Amino acid sequence: MSTADHLPHLDPPPTAAEISAAEALIATERSHSVPSESSLHPQITANYPEISRTSSLASNYHAAIAANNGKPPPSAIDTSRYEAPDAPADSDRDAWKATLRRAYTSSAYLGGREDNLKMLEENGKNAWLIANFGVEETLRGLKRSLKEMKATGVSVDEERRLRQEGARGEIEGSEEGWRKALGRAVEVEVAGAKLKAEVEEKRRDGRDG
Questions:
Q1: Phi-psi sector, 80: left (phi>0), alpha (psi -120 to 50), beta
Q2: How many CB atoms lie within 10 A of CB 72?
Q3: Potential cystine with 164: which of 9, 120, 125, 168 (Cβ 3.0-4.6 Å)?
Q4: Minimum mean pLDDT among 46-50, 147-151, 154-158, 167-171: which range?
């Protein structure tokens, strides 16, 4: 929660004892609110299944290396999709239909890939440069915004300093007046207590006389 009673340009800097006390309070609060690294988050139940640190993809890759005498597998790409399907038996009409359907699908896919590779070869450099230009323009915009925010922060801090300096006399006068009023209130309370004690004493003297 933010407070409005902090005047950084008027209040004196904290002492070493005050800093130590504040750090001790922060450490105490953190010990009650921040769980240790070895403990689970309060919203995670104790029977929550442990998450494996090794993905199945990495495990399969290492298994392939072990099966290949410690060498990386020859290729991580399945090339069977680019190969022509095997011809079925001459008498199996349905198998021929399925094979021709797969061959047509593979041919259409490879034709599209070839067109994409041609466009990438012809226009890839320009697309890359255009994308880089867009990223650079975004970066320049962010830098401008950051510069404006910093200038705004400096301006706000300077305005706050001027306002606090302008109110210094009023604040110090109010503080001095408060101290004097508090002192007078204490004096009145002490005088009242003394007067009450004197009245009680006179009453006791009157009863004894």
A1: alpha
A2: 10
A3: 9
A4: 46-50
Name the one residue in this structure whose structure tokens are 């975004």.
138
Q: How far is Cα 20 from Cα 14, in angstroms, rounded to an integer?
A: 10
Which helix (DSSP H) or strand (DSSP E) does residue 34 occupy?
Answer: none
**Residue 50 DSSP class:** P
Q: Which of 18, 15, 14, 4 is nearest to 164 (CA)?
A: 4
Burial of residue 153 (CB within 10 Å: 0-12, 13-18, 19+) is exposed
Across 67-92, average pLDDT? 72
DSSP string, 56-95: HHHHHHHHHHHHTTTSPPS-SS-GGGGSPPPP--TT-HHH
Prediction pTM value: 0.38
8 Å CB contact between 7 and 164: yes
